[in-house]
């Protein structure tokens, strides 16, 4: 490799890792025009094309990366994701299965693109299972998604929602709290944790979460509605208790007479 190609490859990779895709595309293209033997350059360029919605070009790049290096797991997984985007589901399944078999010993070596896309694919399948009431299957797929990307708070919130739908309130609460530890400002987790605590008869905990949500977003209609519901329920309960007490007093008075 001559010095100019080496420099272009290094700078292209730096721009790619910083998600400066326009500059990375320009440099990686020049590298491959001069030397087509760099599988990682094809893979990075494929990621860039995919990010731009240029799926056919992304497919070609990932396929070329595998031509150069058939054992390149990341490129294979990226190709599987791209096949899926293009509706080539049989090809996607085949390439995905082969890639996962190769990477089973070191699944954490996948790049951010592959992990994120594969995680979302599992989450999409989980959504479908949840939609038809197959909660156990949904939980399994959400957990696979989180195994790839444990900090995806939207997916963990869906997992918690599913546990709640199954009546497993403690597991739901545990996962909502994990979301909040990851991102304390994530509103959906705050709101749904409040709902679940309310279902678990922890009224004070529910109110605390909804008030925190309202502090994060003073215009949140959902948080306001939940708090109003609790206030109304409390007022109704007090009114009922007052009526019961009055009735008891009248009964006692009648007995004394």
Summarize this structure as a short list of keywords or feature phrases.
single chain, elongated, mainly alpha, 13 helices, Serine Threonine Protein Phosphatase 5, Tetratricopeptide repeat, 257 residues
Supply the CATH class of the largest domain: Mainly Alpha
For the secondary structure, the number of strands is 0
Whole-angstrom Rg: 27 Å
User: What's the CATH H-level superfamily name of the largest domain?
Assistant: Tetratricopeptide repeat domain
pLDDT averaged residue by residue: 84
Helical stretch tally: 13
Beta fraction of the residues?
Answer: under 5%
Order of helices and strands: HHHHHHHHHHHHH
Could you describe the largest sheet, including whether it forms a barrel?
A: none
Counting structural domains, the number is 2
Under the CATH scheme, which architecture of the largest domain would be assigned? Answer: Alpha Horseshoe
Give the topology, please.
Elements: H1 3-17, H2 21-34, H3 39-51, H4 55-68, H5 73-85, H6 89-103, H7 112-131, H8 135-148, H9 153-165, H10 169-182, H11 187-199, H12 203-216, H13 221-256
Helix pairs in contact: 1-2, 2-3, 3-4, 3-5, 4-5, 5-6, 5-7, 7-8, 8-9, 9-10, 9-11, 10-11, 11-12, 12-13
Task: State the gist of this model.
81% of the residues lie in helices and 0% in strands. The chain is mostly helical. Helix 1 (3-17) packs antiparallel against helix 2 (21-34), helix 4 runs antiparallel to helix 5 and helix 10 (169-182) packs antiparallel against helix 11 (187-199).
Notes on the structure:
This protein has 257 residues and is mostly helical. 81% of the residues lie in helices and 0% in strands. It contains 13 helices and no strands. It has helices spanning 3-17, 21-34, 39-51, 55-68, 73-85, 89-103, 112-131, 135-148, 153-165, 169-182, 187-199, 203-216, 221-256. Helix 11 runs antiparallel to helix 12. It is elongated and about 80 Å long.
